[in-house]
């Protein structure tokens, strides 16, 4: 749990009583590789902090999944649109590795916002970060080639290339696995 406190302290200082209230609302969850965190059609009820592991966001399709995001240790993960609106999710989230999370329910998160001095600041900063990640991804899809998206991914997340199956990386940058192989061959 110490890693989540360090992460939050990096965003904004949290006094001891606020931390104690917030941490009392957190519950540890350990999941095996390839376990759904959120299924298509379910309503997201929790926000998670990734203590260990990697998750992917994807849209399940008949022939192949469409991967549109990855998150790693020391990041928050949730089906944020479903979480905020309490409507069914149009995508899935699953673990790609054995993973450890700290989860908080929507009700408990709202209590943290209401009863702590720093809760609202942390919530706003996390929402801003999620928006920036989404905006960067959309701009890359609209303005960069698949090769540029792959190179950006490699530069931003070199760990990703080693730990995630290439078929998911290919889907994420918007190409077939065969096209990704050609890109990788050209680069090396």
UniProtKB/TrEMBL annotation:
InterPro entries: cNMP-bd_dom, cNMP-bd_dom_sf, RmlC-like_jellyroll
Cyclic nucleotide-binding domain: residues covered: 29-115
SUPFAM superfamilies: cAMP-binding domain-like (SSF51206)
Name of this protein: cAMP-binding domain of CRP or a regulatory subunit of cAMP-dependent protein kinases
Organism: Tenacibaculum platacis
